[in-house]
Amino acid sequence: MSEAKKSSDKCDLPAIVERLCTGEQTITRRAGTTCCEPLPSRADVIRMAERLRAALFPGFFGISEVRAETLAFHVGHVLDEVQRTMELQIRRCLAFSEDDASEGTRFDQAARRLTAAFFQRLPEVQHLLAGDVRAAYEGDPAARTPDEAVFCYPGVLTITNHRLAHELYRLEVPLLPRIISEHAHSITGIDIHPGAQVGQHFFIDHGTGVVIGETCIIGDRVRIYQGVTLGAKSFPLDEEGKPIKGIPRHPIIEDDVIVYSGATILGRVTIGAGSMIGGNVWLTRDVPPGSRVTVQPAREERFQLGGGI
Fold first, then answer.
1. How far apart are CA 128 and CA 136, in angstroms?
2. Residues 173-186, buried b or exposed e (16+ Cβ, 10 A)?
3. Is 48 in contact with 82 (CB distance < 8 Å)?
4. What's the fold here for domain 196-295?
5. pLDDT band at residue 149 under the 50/70/90 scheme
6. What is the dihedral angle through the alpha carbons of 123, 161, 212, 279, rounded to the nearest 10 degrees?
7. 80 falls in which pLDDT band (50, 70, 90)?
8. Cβ–Cβ < 8 Å for 109, 91
9. Domains 35-190 and 196-295 share a fold
10. pLDDT tens digits along 165-213
């Protein structure tokens, strides 16, 4: 083998490492930050979300041998673990989002305050989820029991993660809500931004391919089927050509609306209470209450052998 061939077979690992660590494309830290804190742990955040599910639905997830006399101990043990994890991960998220993370004590205090505020909301979250489970059971004739919806339905899993992520979003915790919501998205194919406001008794049937944008507002007793998009029609740009963040740009879905599979509703439009949006509808305008919006029905044609109609 020639010397040139031997040289080409060698891997110059130190040079590659240097290029990966010093190049402009390095993404291990947000550009410009001086933060030396460890990054948030995606694995720990996901485990935390799963443990919260075990506290909200005792016996369904995590330890299954939960009896009435051990319920309080079980839930307390889970929440004690979650509290420590959440404080640490919120602290890391706060430090990572700051340009100067030198004031560690300030982040410690903020993490404790935000975690306490989140925990205060857990009973209300559980109440909302109980309504979501009832909506799944009552809205699907294939469901034999509400327990089946808790164990098996991707829509219930996703709305559980969403309601947890939404509370963190309301508290303006950076990054953490997106990790929780995107974990559910990766499992179920249902993409709900943590900022979306979702009312009571919400049910996503089947679920795969559903997209609900950040500024979407959904009322009570709304039912959505697979492949539905509640998205933005356009993205206003600033003077530098970058999307303007935080402006209302997604639909408002009022109470008692049903949106069937494949429907796409775009922009800051309002779908009036009690309306039904049919499958595969493309909608970019307001709809008054009680409306029924469908695509043109398919035409039935009879064909004979030989190609005639």
1. 13
2. bbbbbbbbbbbbbe
3. yes
4. UDP N-Acetylglucosamine Acyltransferase; domain 1 (2.160.10)
5. very high
6. -100
7. very high
8. no
9. no
10. 999 999 999 999 999 999 999 999 999 999 999 999 999 999 999 999 9
Q: What is the Cα–Cα distance from 281 to 266, expressed in whole angstroms?
A: 11
What residue ranges do the domains of the chain occupy? 35-190, 196-295
Q: Which long-range contacts (CB under 8 A, 24 or more apart) does 129-138 make?
A: 129/56, 129/57, 129/156, 129/159, 129/160, 129/163, 131/200, 131/201, 131/202, 132/156, 132/159, 132/160, 132/200, 132/201, 132/202, 132/203, 134/201, 135/201, 135/202, 135/203, 135/221, 135/223, 136/203, 136/205
pLDDT, greater one: 130 or 8: 130
Q: How many CB atoms lie within 10 A of CB 192?
A: 29
- Per-residue pLDDT at 32: 46
Fold of 35-190: serine acetyltransferase, domain 1 (1.10.3130)
Q: Residue 97 pLDDT > 90, yes or no? A: no
Residue 296's identity, in one-letter code, is: Q
- Indicate the Cα dihedral angle 257, 258, 261, 267, nearest 10°: -10
